[in-house]
Amino acid sequence: MTSLPSLPTPKKLGLVIDLDVCVGCHACVISCKEWNTGGYGAALSDQDPYGAEVSGTFLNRIHTFEVVPEGGQVIGEAGEARIVHFPKSCLHCEDAPCVTVCPTGASYKRAEDGIVLVDESKCIGCGLCAWSCAYGAREMDLAAGVMKKCTLCVDRVYNETLKEIDRVPSCVRTCPANARHYGDLADPGSEVSRMVAERGGYDLMPEQGTRPTNKYLPPRPRKPLAASAGSAVLAENTDGAKGFFAWLDGMLDRI
Amino acid sequence: MHPAFSIILFTTLSGLGYGLAAVLGLGLLDASTLSVKLAHLGALAMIAGGLLSSTLHLGNPQRAWRALSQWRSSWLSREGVMAIATFLPLMVSTWFAVVEGRYLPVVGLIGSVMCGITVYCTAMIYASLRSIQAWNTGLTPLCYLLFAAAGGLLLATVGAFVSGSGATVCAILALILVAVAWIAKHAWWNRLRTLVPLSTPESATGLGNIGHVRLFERPHINDNYLTREMGFKVARKHALKLSRLAILVGGVAPIVLLLMAIFAGGAAAVPAAVLAALCYALGLVVERWLFFAEARHAVMNYYGG
Ligand code: SF4
Ligand code: SF4
Ligand code: SF4
């Protein structure tokens, strides 16, 4: 049924992504593909995998943005441009348009935990749900002809055959910088909810009216380049050197 | 948005087919004439052809019947249900016209209304998508309905000139609707070209409070499904030229040709009306191509497009 659950779901399982921490290594992209190509539904195919025109289906992708403050084009004048790595997967929206547009009932939102999934045996591959998603979180698999999207690793998080530590999404488990967090955003006491409250976690494109479950934590204010300049000068200046370095300094001076 | 040939063909053909069927359902033409019988069959053929071409772009067309199940929430499903339901009165009307040469007012009118609803559902598939701001307006269904009506009247005019009855009334109605349809489309284009984007790279990333957001690196070097499907971009100046061309070929030319047909009458009227219908169809294809090509999807905020 592609009508949305009528009540707010008791749980809102989702991700909290920390833009301050993500280093843009793409490890979660690979681990997501690795887990999901053998997991839920059809494999995530690649087209022309060893050729020049390689492309394929991914459920999670990392974009990188440059953010330039007003007047920041000139270094030191008004803050500097900064690079923000930006992981993006399905946000498991509460008002998910991708669910209501689906003509077949393949696309649905689970009433118990809010996870948005595609029942691939019903999907006709019309692509309308991908059109309706402003976030680009759905990709048609060209080999299987069905719609693929982030499953929130539903086959991990409830999987009792896995060790408890592994019962989180693959991307969360893999992230070497700990930029991705998984939890219940309906529970104000959960770790993810507290993080969102502390750091001012926000929604992407709230104007689209989709009410995403996933939240993004903003990059922390950065120390301006000029403030770090002192340590750069230190290399030329050995006045404060002590112990071994003072001895080395003296020896090198003598040579 | 990528202007997929199958979808352009589908919306143009089925629009013309439903328009023609709706006009026939109003009983403006003499159902006993050969040209009206052919028009009935032609309308059905166009509708069926359009529907078939729309299944061409499906990943799993063998399950297409499932698309009839979610009419409670999905405009695409509603369209499918209506398209099939509308076949019933249209088939009955066609049967009576072709076999018995009779017009059934009640069935005809029901058919006309259902044709209108079907076209409305088609348009709402597009108009209901917030992620594509260009389409997300009441003007979208208005244009689809007017274009279908104008096309139907134009085709009916051809039939009327061939059969020689009711041609002038039909031609004048066609003339008015062609004009009104392109005026509505002009308003649609005006809206599109003065649109303030609902979503921006700043709102898409939430980083606007730090500064201006610009894509630095895509997630991948080559295109993916999203950039192929939604990353289509047409140069503004070309779009402007093409839209003028569409109005010229699809609007001005048919109106001039219809006027010629009305005043010349006789043998010259038929080729003039046929030419008017052909010009209109060509203009409509250009209009539909632009409908997709000019529409920017919100996801492009993540792809620097
Ligand atoms: S992010 Fe897109 S695919 Fe995911 S729930 Fe929201 S609208 Fe649907
Ligand atoms: S592609 Fe599949 S899941 Fe998406 S709207 Fe079409 S049938 Fe539904
Ligand atoms: S939750 Fe699972 S499916 Fe979703 S992005 Fe992470 S690894 Fe991929």
UniProtKB/TrEMBL annotation, chain A:
The record, for InterPro entries, names:
4Fe4S_Fe-S-bd (IPR017896), ET_IronSulfur_Cluster-Binding (IPR050954)
At the top level, the lineage of the source is Bacteria
Q: Does the keyword Cell inner membrane apply?
A: no
Q: Where is the 4Fe-4S ferredoxin-type domain?
A: 13-43, 81-112, 114-143
Q: Which organism is it from?
A: Aminobacter anthyllidis
Q: What is this protein called?
A: 4Fe-4S dicluster domain-containing protein
- Keyword presence, Iron-sulfur: yes
**Alphabetized UniProt keyword annotations:** 4Fe-4S, Iron, Iron-sulfur, Metal-binding
* GO terms of molecular function: 4 iron, 4 sulfur cluster binding; metal ion binding
Automatic annotation (TrEMBL), chain B:
Looking at the UniProt record for this protein, which Gene Ontology cellular component terms does it annotate, in alphabetical order? dimethyl sulfoxide reductase complex; plasma membrane
- Could you name the domain of life of the organism this protein comes from? Bacteria
GO molecular function terms attached to this record: dimethyl sulfoxide reductase activity
> What keywords would UniProt list here?
Membrane, Transmembrane, Transmembrane helix
GO BP annotations listed:
anaerobic electron transport chain
Among InterPro entries, the record links this protein to: DmsC (IPR007059)
Q: Which residues cross the membrane?
A: 37-59, 80-98, 104-127, 139-160, 166-184, 245-264, 270-291
Q: Does the keyword Oxidoreductase apply?
A: no
State a single Pfam family of this protein.
DmsC
Q: Does the keyword Ribosomal protein apply?
A: no
Q: What is this protein called?
A: Dimethyl sulfoxide reductase anchor subunit
Q: From what organism does this protein derive?
A: Aminobacter anthyllidis
Lineage in the entry?
Bacteria, Pseudomonadati, Pseudomonadota, Alphaproteobacteria, Hyphomicrobiales
